Give the backbone structure.
Amino acid sequence: MKNNSKPPTPNLKPGGTEGGDTLFLAGGGLTLCGVGLYLLLDSVRVVTGDYGALSGLMNRRGGMGNTTSMGIIFVPFIIGATVLFYDAAKKWAWWLATAGLGIIVIEIFSRIRFVLNMKTTHLLLIFLMIAAGAGLLAKAYRTSKSS
């Protein structure tokens, strides 16, 4: 008697192999996500603003007027550092120098402004690239976990 049943064929994935789809999806997703993030960050221009957090408060309250000289923010740090060079055991001088340095850092970082200068269609395409890459990465992770 003749056996007409065919031998079982392996479950072939994309590319005609038994595996490799996870690596393909992860590589494609990582590439799309990386290129999208690069294009997004490449289109942002960083500038400094006129006023920071503290100098803006002083200007709005009317105390300083319209000034660009904000040397007053250095006073706590200078007093604290001076006292520390005289006597480093004074705890209040350590606190004053640390607070002064914190004020300077806050003022510097609060003046930073990010300007995004591009067409809306380009922005949407960049977001689409990032979302597609993240989706492919998630699919690759799900596929590798289930197998």
About this structure: The mean pLDDT is 80.
